Amino acid sequence: QVHVVESGGGLVKPGESLRLSCAASGFLFSDFHMNWFRQAPGKRPEWLSYISDDGGHSDYADSVQGRFSVSRDNDKNILYLQMKSLTVDDTAVYYCARGGMTTLTRGRCDSWGQGTLVSVS
Amino acid sequence: IQMTQTPSSLSASLGDRVIITCRAGQARPSINSYLNWYQQKPGKAPRLLIFATSSLESGVPSRFRGGASGTDFTLTIDSLQFEDFATYYCHQSYSVPFTFGQGTKVELK
Questions:
Q1: Count of C-beta atoms within a 10 Å radius of residue A59
Q2: Beta bridge partners of B100
Q3: C-beta of residue A47 within 8 angstroms of C-beta of residue A37
Q4: Is residue B34 within 8 angstroms of chain A, CB to CB?
Q5: What CA–CA distance (Å, rounded) separates A118 from A28?
């Protein structure tokens, strides 16, 4: 059964950094593109970042470009999101989600974690 | 790509047919293969229902249908069930940044 589980959220002060992790199981992690999203209370989900199956390519939303960095360890089946220079506007539940196996389906996310809360205050 | 979803909320009864509409700020044929619908319940992650406009995700009941008409994409729920009361989002995965509509909250009348 496909599972992705986020961890690493918490309460931080503005300007601080945080690294989120997403542990994947139940599928061949290295075959799939992966994404990060977040959702502030009462708002629609917001796509943040994508990383290709081999980690060789990534994209970012303008709102996090230059502050957030996505990476993956295909040997350990873990996806990461390194976040720095956090602001109060970054407060949200952060989700990792499995994309597809091809570039064309990279954003079609069929399995999501339960989310991890990041609070910046 | 801006996604405009209507209505923002609706009230319906059990057994009703519900239609939610989403318009993309890009010619519809080019994103047909990249238009997805998600369901989200409070405190839960989004759940993929429909991908590529009209393909039903595995395990999703057949009362959920995706389609397109003119310039719009549609999500239809035939015979609304209790577990369908939730918020629904359209989503384009054609080009980054991948974007969502503002959501439609389906409530019990």
A1: 19
A2: B91
A3: yes
A4: yes
A5: 28
Judge whether A108 is closer than 8 Å to chain B, CB to CB: yes
Give the amino acid at B60.
V
A23-61 residue pLDDT tens: 999 999 999 999 999 999 999 999 999 999 999 999 999
> If you search the block for the tokens 């999501």, which residue do you land on?
A112
Give yes or no for A59 touching B (CB within 8 A). yes
φ/ψ of A40, rounded to 5, equals -80, 155
C-alpha span between B12 and B8 (Å, rounded): 13
Residue (of A105, A90, A8, A94) closest to A45 by Cα position? A94
Looking up tokens 């290295």, which residue turns up? A30
- The model's pLDDT over A75-84, given as tens digits with 9 standing for 90+, comes to 999 999 999 9
Q: Which of B4, B53, B93, B102 to mutate to test the interface with A (most CBs of A within 10 A)?
A: B93
Nearest to A88 by CA among A41, A26, A48: A41
Let me know the angle formed at the C-alpha of A117 by B95 and A4, rounded to the nearest 5 degrees: 60
CA distance linking residue A106 with residue A114, whole number of Å: 20
Q: What is the bridge-based pairing of β-strands A10-12 and A34-39?
A: unpaired
* CA-wise closest residue to A84 among A12, A26, A23, A27: A12
Cα B68 to the center of its chain, rounded Å: 11
> Nearest 5 degrees, angle CA B96-CA A50-CA A84?
105
Convert the pLDDT of each residue in B61-102 to its tens digit: 999 999 998 889 999 999 999 999 999 999 999 999 999 999
The separation between CA B6 and the C-alpha centre of its own chain, rounded to angstroms, equals 10
